[in-house]
Amino acid sequence: MKDMIKEIEEKVNSCFTLNNVVDKLDIKPIKDEIKKLIELDNECNKRALNLIIFGLKEEVDENTLALAQIELYNRLQIETMCLT
Fold first, then answer.
1. Residue 13 to residue 40: CA distance in whole angstroms
2. Which of 5, 25, 41, 78 could form a disulfide with 72 if both were Cys (CB 3.0 to 4.6 A apart)?
């Protein structure tokens, strides 16, 4: 019985020690860094859906989206729809 009580006391003491260490840790910088990484990942995911077209000449007052749709169809037979 004494051995069991001693074992329980040791476990309780180790828990208190662990809690004291956790309380002293400053994890705010880690949380901030994780938040930045999540924001960066979200931005990368948004950009992955973009299509960049080089060499498309735009005149004043022209609709660039319409020009891009025409070029995609004329050159690659890709039909597009406007999401705006």
1. 42
2. 78
Contact 67, 82 (CB under 8 A): no
Q: Are 42 and 61 in contact (CB under 8 A)?
A: no
Q: How far is CA 65 from the centre of its chain?
A: 28
List, in sequence order, the alpha helices (H) in the chain: 2-24, 28-48, 64-76
Q: For 45-63, write each residue's pLDDT tens digit.
A: 887 777 777 777 777 677 7
Out of 4-8, 37-41, 62-66, 79-83, which region has the weakest mean confidence (pLDDT)?
79-83
Nearest alpha-carbon partner for 68 in 49, 45, 76, 44: 76
Q: Measured between alpha carbons, how far is 74 from 6 in angstroms, rounded to an integer?
A: 83
Calpha distance 65→14 (Å, rounded) = 65
Distance from C-alpha of 59 to C-alpha of 7, rounded to nearest angstrom: 83
